[in-house]
Design goal:
This protein has about 110 residues and is mainly α. It is built from 6 helices and no strands. It binds phosphoribosyl ATP. Phosphoribosyl ATP (PRT) binds next to helix 1, helix 2 and helix 4.
Amino acid sequence: MATDILDTLEATIRARRSADPSTSYVAKLTHKGRAKIAQKLGEEAVEAAIAAVQDDRAGLTGEAADLIFHLLVLLADMGLTLDDVRAELARREGVSGIDEKASRPT
Ligand SMILES: N=c1c2ncn([C@@H]3O[C@H](COP(=O)(O)OP(=O)(O)OP(=O)(O)O)[C@@H](O)[C@H]3O)c2ncn1[C@@H]1O[C@H](COP(=O)(O)O)[C@@H](O)[C@H]1O
């Protein structure tokens, strides 16, 4: 079975968190603390939004990769996994967008 790159990256990030910060970006960022990781995530989100507004498809692809990478670093720092996010998305798939009770005639 093909391995998903996000699963591979998640495992790499988990393994690199405790590496030498001088040789690992993940370790360096983790060492700086959660607020710094969150700040980087926000910056990458803004850069992705700017690329989209500028109709820069290659730029958005790169920024999306940066954004997802930093999101995975933040999830790992919070002790959360992609499976937690998958479970939440699956739960939402089962939720109707229509409030049936509210739309039912009285
Ligand atoms: N996917 C990535 C990845 N995407 C982006 N980045 C880094 O994210 C940083 C974002 O760039 P910026 O210019 O915004 O930040 P910066 O100036 O380097 O850092 P700051 O001083 O702002 O904190 C760059 O240094 C990129 O190298 C990544 N660094 C690592 N990975 C993956 O993570 C794995 C583990 O990396 P190490 O921890 O370095 O071994 C690697 O094998 C890669 O697969």
